[in-house]
Amino acid sequence: MLHQAILWLVDTIGAFGYTGIFLLMAMESSVLPVPSELVMPPAGYLVQQGRMDMTLVILAGTLGSWVGAYANYFAARFLGRPLLLRYGKYIGLSEQHFSRVEHFFRQHGEISTFIGRLLPVIRHLISLPAGLACMSHLRFSLYTLVGSALWVSILAWIGYFIGENQDLIVQYSHQAVVDVIAFSAVLAAGYIWLHKRRAARQ
Which of 71, 8, 55 has its CA nearest to residue 153? Predict the structure, then answer.
């Protein structure tokens, strides 16, 4: 089943090129179940075969991720926020909850968005609280692009070096997830330490 899915993605990306990567990664960054771990490695394999260019592959994947994330951000900021503020009390969400979310993203929005783009499941959802908190468009876009570019690059290079061996692609993609989670934990711990140290000086 997985083997067939990877072959289908290789054929699809080969047929639609960079547009296919862009659209699949936009879907992956919204709420549609298209795992990036199955999109970018086949694209990297096509680079190895000389059928695509790595820089353009990473660019297409990164921009697709940004567009999908921005769609969620936009929906949460301009559609979800008014609805939740109006009807949130019926499901236990008050204006105080929104105030806490806004305060958190004012202080920690950059690191939350960057790390969120690297983590499974969270990468699909981090745009929603950022939108609800009305995080700056510029800050949201910048850290989404940086985080997405890092993750997309890792997966594309896995596909490039491993080639068409589906079992190894899955193995190394899973390992990349574990490594990125560990990196994110260290980064978050370092950020918390610096934040507490800075607060203690004030």
Answer: 55
What letter does residue 89 receive in the DSSP assignment? G
Please identify every stretch of the chain with a pLDDT value under 70, giving residue numbers as ranges.
1-14, 31, 33, 81, 83-99, 101, 163-170, 172, 195, 199-200, 202
CA distance 48 to 52: 8
Per the CB < 8 A criterion, the answer to whether 152 and 25 are in contact is: yes
Read off the tokens for 192: 């918390």
| Residue whose C-alpha is closest to residue 180's, from 151, 145, 153, 159 | 151
For residue 28, what are its two tokens?
């992956």
For the chain, the C-alpha Rg in angstroms (whole number) is: 19
Count the neighbouring beta carbons within 10 Å of the beta carbon of residue 31. 14
